[in-house]
Amino acid sequence: MDLVKRKSAQSKRASLKKAWNVSGKSIRHKKKLQRAIEKVVRKDKTYNPKRSGLSAADRVLLLREIRPSTVLDGLYPIRRQRNHWQKLRSRDPATANTEIDLEEFSFLRSPQATLDALKAIAQAESRALGARINFKDEYCLDVAPFMLLVECWKEMMPVFEGGEMNLPMQKVLAAVGVQYALGVGFTGISDFNDVWAFPLTRRRKPGASDSKSPFVDVPTRDYATDRFVEAVDEWLGRPEIELELSDSGREKLMNLLGEVLENAERHSDGHRRDGSWSVSGFLAKRSSEAGEPVYRASIGILSLGDTFSESLDRAHTDQKTNISEYITDMKTKGAVQSEETLKTLAALQDGVTCVEEAENADRGGYGLMDILDFVSVLGRTVDEKHAPQVTIISGSSCIQLKGNYNRGHTSGADGPRVQWFNNENSARIPPDPNFVFDLNGSLPGTAISIGFYLDPEVLRRSFDGA
Q: Is the pLDDT assigned to residue 37 strictly greater than 50?
């Protein structure tokens, strides 16, 4: 058993460029040389590369300490506990062939399972000697989970050695730029004829960029809003649709995304209002069950730092009082959701903001409802299976906007848009736990996953009717 474990570890270390250079020696001699090399490494001394084959880069990996990570530490809190995260040379050789299989990797379809999958990746980064991530879905169902991987990839110990990924998913991730942000290589891609990307765009605090490409990390949200408008205009320009955004439509879309990203900057970074965000998306041409072409769009918006619930701790006193009274009333009436999730639901409603001056000027807290309106209009379809969906995960709270609860509604012509997830759309009735619920685990910030289909016939009919 001991010999088997050592061979397995040697094989995986070789794949991580741990070349021991002991070819041609007896098993007994190999063991002695390996123990000698490991002893020297533990003492942090230079070993003759001609004798050991152990490069400086190899020693750096073997001795590398844990790197703090907002995402990894949030997903897997015990990663930061003393002696839990292990240096590479201390890891169990039996973990060299760790396999992580991901199915339904989508916050839209399986929010809890997707959060668990991300946690499993963080766990493998902490203690596995080698691991493969196998993406079992044929298509990319949701771009947001991949954006989370981008946020923490450079902070991971490089124990991940590829895995399975179908060609349609490779094409999407290459088109939006996730491939290059992760620094991984895809094979077999010959064209992008059925994918139209809204490239991955991230805003970082001054001096905090970790990307070599200025196309990924940008200084202001104007870059993101411009790219978003261009992407949507390109999506509408498909030959089956042949529409384009008007000047007023372009302006509305820019303002829509601009407010959402501005909120991310202000809300996710405490009182400094200097938070980071990332946004991306794609349109992909797929085949329906009947073999007919369909156009599926996915958009992801990610903000790390304070959650919706945490940001509302800084809201105006009157607003905090109203939210507190709502939570107390819901608990009295039997709501099963946590206070955090009920507060997150309150944050969804029109006019709710943590920025006092925005509330006083009545100009904040409308971005999320604007997003829902945009998705509902652009993704209108007669096929219920293709109806728009939005999932919001903030901390341990999950809100799924779909079906009858896919957007906000007003009680009058000029009233605020609200969605309380019950048949009467009332703040006096507890929300439906099938759509508003607590997660087992937590995301260190907020992820918004948006999915909808572009129905050419419905879009053209709406255009002609206008």
A: no
Task: Say if CB 406 and CB 387 are below 8 A apart.
Answer: yes
Cα 218 from chain centre? 18
DSSP E strands in 142-252: the ranges are 195-203, 217-218
For 234-252, letters b (16+ CB in 10 Å) and e give: ebbebeebebebeeeebee
Residue (of 177, 354, 132) closest to 264 by Cα position: 354
- In this structure, the strands spanning 293-304 and 277-287 are antiparallel
Cα–Cα distance between 74 and 182 in angstroms, integer?
20
Residues 6+ apart with CB under 8 A from 59: 41
Mean pLDDT score of the chain: 82
Q: Is the pLDDT of residue 360 over 90?
A: no
Residue 142 sits at the vertex; the CA angle it makes with 305 and 241, to the nearest 5 degrees, is 125
The residue type of 283 is L
What's the pTM value of the predicted model, to 2 decimals? 0.83
What does the alpha-carbon distance between residue 204 and residue 218 come to, in Å, rounded to a whole number? 7
Instruction: With a cut of 80, say whether residue 355 has pLDDT above it.
Output: no
Residues 311, 314, 317: CA angle, nearest 5 degrees: 135
Q: What is the DSSP letter of 302?
A: E
Name residue 62's amino acid: L
Looking at per-residue pLDDT, the higher value among 361 and 429 belongs to 429
List the helix and strand counts (H, then E) for the chain.
Answer: 17, 8
- Give 262's contacts (C-beta < 8 A, 6+ positions apart): 221, 367
Interval 80-104: pLDDT, tens: 999 999 998 899 999 999 999 999 9
Q: Which residues are 365's β-sheet partners?
A: none
Q: How confident is the model at residue 124 (pLDDT cuts 50, 70, 90)?
A: very high
- What is the Cα Rg of the chain in Å? 25
Euclidean distance between CA atoms 147 and 301, whole angstroms: 9
